Give the backbone structure.
Amino acid sequence: MSTATVTAREVHLVRRPQGMPVADDFAIVDRALPEPGDGEVLVANRSFSVDPYMRGRMNDVKSYVPPYALDAPMDGRAVGEVVASNAEGFAEGDLVLANLAWRTHGVAHARTLQKVPDVEGVEPSAYLGVLGAPGLTAWVGLLDIASFVEGDAVFVSGAAGAVGSLVGQLAKLKGASRVIGSAGTAAKTAWLTDELGFDVALNYKDGPIREQLRDAAPDGIDVYFDNVGGDHLEAAIEVANDYARVANCGAIAHYNDTDDDRTPGPDNLFQIVKKRLRLQGFIVTDSLSRFPAFLEEVTPWVAEGRVKHSETVVEGIDQAVEAFRGLLRGENTGKMVVTV
Amino acid sequence: MSTATVTAREVHLVRRPQGMPVADDFAIVDRALPEPGDGEVLVANRSFSVDPYMRGRMNDVKSYVPPYALDAPMDGRAVGEVVASNAEGFAEGDLVLANLAWRTHGVAHARTLQKVPDVEGVEPSAYLGVLGAPGLTAWVGLLDIASFVEGDAVFVSGAAGAVGSLVGQLAKLKGASRVIGSAGTAAKTAWLTDELGFDVALNYKDGPIREQLRDAAPDGIDVYFDNVGGDHLEAAIEVANDYARVANCGAIAHYNDTDDDRTPGPDNLFQIVKKRLRLQGFIVTDSLSRFPAFLEEVTPWVAEGRVKHSETVVEGIDQAVEAFRGLLRGENTGKMVVTV
């Protein structure tokens, strides 16, 4: 196997962001890639994922995944095409999933790659979103963490995101009595109710979410899937029924907090006692053993169009930082993807 | 059966307190009791319990128990002696547990009474505290709710109270790697370490609990038993290890909150996600089926002195309101009891 040298364009983290990341925290670097070694594969990305959890990895703090190194491209899921293989089982032209985000090309060991399943009606980039880690997050969070059962009333924040949009649809398919979502634009709330079948969608910019949710959930909620934290968590606790469960999945309201500027927490946590609530944080990487069961259930729903999903596509590696900033500002509907 | 008329002195709630209850929220009322009807018993109290949960019942809001009625004595656990019985199985002189707090005498149906077990080394009033609902609360919260396992490091707030003091001792007896308690006076913290065997006791009035706990728990905590809420919950979340569990039992910091004056909540709840924490509220009345197993395990420990307990005794029905105010201010060590 031999190939001409490939020059990859990569986005490197060069400085730890303070609050919202800015362009100067990153650098665009062109780098000649080595030829793939034994067992390795050279991949040309088609698209890669930018996700909220990446903000945490940009900080130099102990967390569930190591922080991103400075002066290196950042890991994350990508769909690409094999352009040169030095590994058994992978051939030029294969579509693969790899941890090669924030770059145009990368070299990876075959054991870090999966072939993209070829399922009629499912496009490859679905495996970055609805059938990837965000999809598994929604499924595990709703079923395993929040112990959803038929008849539950469900509230999900960040409902127009990759995770939240699936949470609401899964709840509807599994017999929720009511599904309420929150999002930050009228276009998103319209998408939730008109396309995805949510019963109610709240635009949190229209007024205090606490008051809006009280009106939207006259019979309370049994499950809250939290992607936001802060005022949304407070609102959910306020309307929660006895024995309600909260899956704490994300806290996008807090991701840009600094030591000097922290988003206040809910002031009604004593209701956890009164109502016997259960709040449980989770990280999808703890539940990778559930991937097969998840794919078995959800893949047909995606293929048949019973589960809908949306991508917000930003074109070009040079726009990756702006795509990520947009994600943190809530500018995406569904999965935020950068095409290469 | 016949008896001379008995006049009971009762403490009635006559106004819903705003914030800390004041004397004028209550009235002392002398009332001639009817003779016990069929199946009823007349009880002369020896002592009764005042508990933090009673503050919630003084508000006219939906909660896990109905609010106290105005112009009537308040329910709560009491130990008394049968002075007249019109019920099979109860005779003059029997010591009984009844829901007849805040009064000197009361008439109750036999089905609401239990005889005080006669166990050597266990005084009757123990059944108001360490072997009563507070004891069951500690046991259920630590074992069932917080899923304590041997080797866990445990933090308990309100540690010198009836519940907290047992939580720490149970954790030690069951092999905790470290037990840390917090309380509000030097006498209490000395009692926790010198008498009860806590590894560390923090006086939260000595400085921010967040900083004190960080120093006291260099290897983090696995279980937090929360009686306080507010800054204590925030501190516990800050030092919690991955997969730590919180039993949310009480929130005494919040009990006197009003709509206009609310204690701020923790500002670090996003760590619930990062650390995969589980917070679960509970009410002991949901776990009454666990009473026999609890008594079987803990009664011998109390009788043998391996579990120690303390009572703060206030004498006289006329002092009951002041005893309750003292409880909310943290003036008790162990169980707060009013003797009649």
Chain B touches chain A at residues 56, 63-64, 229, 233-234, 242, 248-251, 254-255, 257, 262-283, 286 (CB under 8 Å).
